[in-house]
Amino acid sequence: MLAPVNDIVSPGVYANPELLHARYARYRREEPVAWIDQEPYRPFWAVTRHADIMEVERQHQIFINEPRVTLVPREVEDQTTAALGKRTAMVRSLLDMDEPDHRKYRAVAQSWFMGPGVARFQSRVDTVCSNWIDRMQEQGGQCDFAADIANFVPLSVIMTILGLPESDMQFVLRSTQQLFGASDPDMQDDSGDYGRTVFMQLMGYLGELVERRRREPTDDLASVIANGVIDGAPMAMLETLSYLLVTSTAGHETTASALAGGLLAMLQNPDQLQLLRDRPELWNEGAADEVVRWVTPIRHMMRTATQDYVLRGKQIKAGDSLAMLYLSANRDEEAFVDPFRFDVQRTNSRHLAFGFGVHFCLGRLLALNEIKSFFKQLLQRVEHIELAGEAVQAQSNFVGTLKSLPVCYRFKS
Ligand code: HEM
Question: What is the CATH number of the domain that holds 282?
Fold first, then answer.
């Protein structure tokens, strides 16, 4: 095992991208499948290479999601086990499920996400993006793009697809930030209970939404989920709430992270920004995917082995957990030409930012549409834009996002 100096676990390391990438690179080179035993987490295998993550995700019968989907401090897992009798979280979303349940539950919203639902909402996504660009303009030439704009665009979209009022946006924003940025000191709630209070409030809020949509269904995604049927019976409340929770959270901070990280990448690579100005059609080719590869908002997901397995020469034992480090895989020299180059002309990139296999991100189309729509419109309307201060990365080893991205700009007259 490499010395702890090669820490790729502590949330603090994630606030320093250069350091993090140097460490990932060392693992890819020297120990691509490495046993990590570092507090506050239970030990696990870190998988840093693209091909190895694909191998794990492809074999979803051997490497399953239950009971450990993300890195959670041992103390929190113990509290959950004491309360619920098992180590899994208090939710049962698609991410916590394995076959055969996973396939059945995924089918409830899959067709909405994979085409007609998302297509029907495209013009509303365009309007949301345009409204937030208006607000940027109203701020008079400078803003904190991460905190003032990127945070709100995906959330406005989710509020729209779930049919929730704009007036509830601050509540949903604060709750999801506290739940998913829970390791960053600036994003923690002050109850000291690892987000349990926030979680209960959000579940109560979503419960009311389910009741309303069961009484009076509409054409939105909340109605599809609230009235989901599994094996001929209505979906149970825990699974219904978890479905809504994962939709409202998975789609929010991830896409916000891609927008803020994408703008930063463009500002740090002016030649690429110019290319996108000259050839906006690149957004419909591979540019949005390149933004997502570059940023890789979700830094890891976990799987647990159901049987002994040899991965890149390492003996994985039944019951061992593995963390698939997507950000490392998306800079893997064996999988990408020039992986450390932000290249908006990169096409057919098989990046892993949306995962792979049966749990492949359900919201991929929606997320890519938001990114395309926002940046196409922004670059059309803005004459000049540049960094106006230091970009600050959140301390989180799960969803990596920028806490702050000060920019100044001039709109076309
Ligand atoms: C850039 C934005 C996004 C990124 C980077 C992202 C990334 C991911 C990743 C890595 C997974 C796990 C895949 C795996 O385990 O193999 C996932 C699953 C999921 N995502 Fe996304 N996501 C994004 C946006 C969205 C949006 C906009 C939504 C919906 C509104 C969404 C809904 C989901 C759902 C429901 C799952 C669970 C799928 C399953 O377990 O079957 N995501 N996403």
Answer: 1.10.630.10
Tens of pLDDT, residue by residue over 338-352, are: 999 999 999 888 999
Give the tens place of pLDDT for each residue, 31-51: 999 999 999 999 999 999 999
The torsion of the CA quartet 18, 19, 22, 27, rounded to 10 degrees, works out to -140
The residues lining ligand 1, judged by C-beta closer than 6 Å to any ligand atom, are 57, 94-95, 106, 158, 246-247, 250-251, 254-255, 258, 292, 297-298, 301, 353-357, 359-363, 366-367
Atom of ligand 1 nearest to the CA of 221: 30
Ligand 1 atom closest to 368 (CA) = 1
User: What's the CA gap between 58 and 293, in Å, rounded?
Assistant: 20
pLDDT over 70, % of the chain: 95
Give yes or no for a contact between 403 and 184, defined as CB atoms under 8 angstroms apart.
Answer: yes
Q: How many domains does the chain have?
A: 1
Q: Is the pLDDT of residue 61 over 70?
A: yes
Domain span at residue 312? 4-411
